[in-house]
Amino acid sequence: MTLNCDNKPDLTLSPRVRKLLELESQFTVGGFEPLPYFFEKAQGSLLWDVDGNRYIDFIGMFSAVNTGHCHPDIQEAVIEQLKKGYGLDSKIQMNTNPRTGEVLEYLDLDRMRTCLEEHKDRVAAVIMECIHGYSQDVNEEISYARGVYDLCKSMNILFIADEVRQGVGKTGKFFSFQHLGHDVKPDIVTMGKSITGGFYPQSFIMGLDAVMASVGPYEMASTYGFTPIGIAAANATIDVIDKENLIERGVSLGNLWKKTVESWNHPLVDYVAQVGADSNLILREVQPSRVAALCMHRGLFVYPKPDGIRLSFAMTMSDELLLEGAAILKGCLDDVDNYGLIELE
């Protein structure tokens, strides 16, 4: 830490982290803007960087570790499966073509209706996350998703629920589409990320019999399709969620978080978008990347967006750890203007 000409302290990176950032910039391209920290160990909702510093993880690999890092039950299941070996030539039934999709403006049901009515003879399906978790009132997102579903059903268009990020209990139900009503049955559901507890990059596609039966055999080969390691991790993850009542736990965490943040009545906080253990803290009159950088210097791992802070809590996190992280964040909001440079903000 140094003082600048305004007598405000600057926060800088350690020599080791600086060297690793130079290597990363030399050998990697694309993807997310890198956060200036390198972790070498994780357990539950805690991380440790290459300098031995401890961090509370409020990102959770963007919902890939909803059961926390290195959950012992899932780890044991994966290790046992590894001892048995695994195949490399399984097949997975799927079609893929990245150039057949179009993106429409979110939460504009009239625009969606107009588009589908105009192109219904050419639209095969609509794929969407039923809950994004960005709106101040989640019911707005639920109403929109239900409206899109009803449009698809009325026009004989497939409705695909993307549950990769918001599935597996994150929103307070196992699938986020379940918030739309008991009568909603997507034609296809995609799953990934936390379905294996962060232990293996496995994805799943499920669908109604009438839809899945249309895919012929050997449409596409997949070297790691249906690998026993991924299946073992997924089964263990589902068992952990059931045994530890993590869906209910995620709702409790989310309620505690929202209540805590709103009690601050902080001038830099616009609102909290909250559903289950998924949260977005929308800020005003402050640069989110600057707040996130200060949080990192104080031991809290969060991810900045243009309008706020992205948060994803592991459903196994304790109340005490959540409140410890909340206190760090509040302190950063209070103090952010007291610093000069916060390196890589």
From TrEMBL:
Keyword Repeat: no
Biological process (GO), any one: L-arginine catabolic process to L-glutamate
Enzyme class: transferase
Highest taxon in the source lineage: Eukaryota
Keywords: Aminotransferase, Pyridoxal phosphate, Transferase
Pathway given in the UniProt record: Amino-acid biosynthesis; L-proline biosynthesis; L-glutamate 5-semialdehyde from L-ornithine: step 1/1
Enzyme Commission identifier(s): 2.6.1.13
GO cellular component terms, A-Z: cytoplasm
A single GO molecular function term of this UniProt record: pyridoxal phosphate binding
Protein name: Ornithine aminotransferase
